[in-house]
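Hi U.,

Before I forget, here's the chain from the pilot set. I'm dumping it here mostly so it's searchable later in email.
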Amino acid sequence: MTEELIKYNNNNIVEQVKGIAAEDADDLAVLNYLAQVSATAQLVKMRKIEESKIPTAGVSFEWSLTTAIEEIRLPKPWISFSLLNNGPGDIRMTINTLKGGIGREAIIRNGAAVSRDFKYPVMTGLYWATTAGLATVSVQAEEGEWA
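Structure:
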């Protein structure tokens, strides 16, 4: 139920406002409580997701690349990786999916390093090639899985 509040000024109605009756205030308190419980439940779910990612192993290898695009399917998803282009050529790389080639990807120059941390085990594959000639890359990664 609502209450009607009316403000008068010289017997003229200045403002007419509908307010909340006292018995409806309890209903609002219950709704507020339910909203807080729901928000808390969502935070608990987010915490469980964060805790469910489990780093399982470190990976380290070197790979020789040519101008042919190579696909590397990872046996376990990676959480993060660091790559060093040992040269002599420059390389291009993309992760997980190859859409229209790798020609649009940024060039990783000879001697340059790239690192990415995805926070979760989501990286499932690599596509890479040199822009010309040959190159060797050193890779260090952290594998992970979901609990």
